[in-house]
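Design job #97: recover the sequence.
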């Protein structure tokens, strides 16, 4: 039988990926979490739990850890909570595939679509036929 999951809903993962060293979520970011959590609770399976700051530790090994995005902070929080930490891609891989450039490189969806990284690139794009 599969273990129930312990979910860490790190909705600020993009912020952490952008500046991982010493990242701490601001109070404004954390204030948005309850409403977002309410919206996704229906996706959790029966028996799954949320890993939340200040909650008592889980029984060791009883829950398989899962994160919205398996960032280093998320994996550390899951381990601290007593969940079994999943294998996860390296930080550099998460950063690469989370960037819009990666998605844009897969397949542009409109004729002439392109990813621009500077004002000069954007102006050249606008000036082209």
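Job complete. Output follows.
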């Amino acid at each position: 039988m599969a273990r129930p999951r312990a979910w860490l809903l790190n909705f600020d993962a993009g912020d952490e990926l952008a500046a991982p060293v010493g990242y701490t979520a601001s109070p404004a970011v954390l204030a948005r979490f309850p409403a977002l959590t309410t919206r996704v609770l229906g996706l959790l399976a029966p028996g799954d739990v949320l890993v939340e700051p200040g909650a008592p530790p889980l029984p060791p090994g009883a829950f398989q850890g899962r994160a919205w995005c398996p960032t280093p902070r998320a994996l550390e929080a899951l381990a601290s909570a007593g969940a079994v930490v999943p294998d996860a891609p390296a930080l550099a891989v998460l950063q690469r595939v989370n960037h819009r450039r990666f998605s844009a490189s897969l397949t542009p969806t409109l004729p002439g679509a392109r990813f621009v990284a500077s004002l000069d690139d954007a102006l050249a794009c606008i000036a082209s036929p």
